[in-house]
Design a protein that fits this description.
The structure is a single chain. By secondary structure, the protein is α/β, with parallel strands linked by helices. The protein contains six helices and seven strands, in the order αβαβαββααβββα. Strands 1-7-6-2-5-4-3 form a seven-stranded mixed β-sheet. Strand 6 and strand 7 form a beta hairpin. Helix 2 crosses helix 3. The chain is globular and about 40 Å long. The N terminus is likely disordered.
């Protein structure tokens, strides 16, 4: 199916075929064992950027990270901190209108998605993004709930919420790779 989204072809160009092992895919809302959770208080923007830098240290090809939280919770700020830590000097903006921003940095293909504008979950498939999630690309996904059950399982999920004058981050692992990342993060 030809995508109506202009960046779908650009995204596919950087994709390499890598499927998860049979049975390892799980939908966002599927029941699973209770994940390990790390909670952090983020008093300001610099702490949120530092969270992104800590995430950058754990990135590896094929990692899928969901970023959840309300408008203005800091999802894009986490991605900005991640990219800065990887050495990306350019502007990092929310891909709300473009749907995806693609970065090649530190020998990684990093795809920053924002599904906020999706009206129905099938739109991410229609946009041609499925192949990216079956590749060696790192996928950072804002508003993953907008694609619901059509997305593959996240390795890590970062939930951001307001907490007093700052934010609270809850980081959970949902795969063996995610648990390795979270274990390294916690030490």
């Amino acid at each position: 199916m030809e995508s109506g989204y202009p960046l779908a072809q650009e995204v596919k160009r950087h994709s390499k075929s890598r499927r998860r092992a049979p049975g390892s895919e799980m939908s966002v809302s599927a029941k699973r064992s209770k994940p390990t959770v790390v909670k952090l208080f983020l008093p300001d923007e610099s702490a949120t950027l530092a969270l992104g830098a800590r995430l950058a240290a754990q990135l590896r090809p094929g990692l899928v990270v969901f970023l959840s939280g309300g408008l203005g919770a800091g999802k894009t700020t986490v991605v900005r901190g991640c990219l800065r830590a990887l050495g990306y000097p350019g502007r990092v903006k929310s891909p709300t209108f473009a749907l995806v921003e693609v970065y090649e940095v530190s020998s990684l293909y990093l795809h920053h998605f924002d599904f906020y504008r999706f009206k129905r979950p099938q739109e991410w498939v229609d946009a041609g993004f499925r192949d990216v999630f079956d590749s060696d690309a790192v996928c950072l996904v804002e508003w993953p709930e907008k694609a619901a059950d059509d997305l593959p399982l996240a390795d890590l999920q970062i939930r951001l919420g307001y907490a007093g004058s700052g934010r609270e981050a809850r980081i959970s692992a949902h795969s063996a790779v995610g648990r390795q990342c979270l274990k390294a993060w916690s030490t």
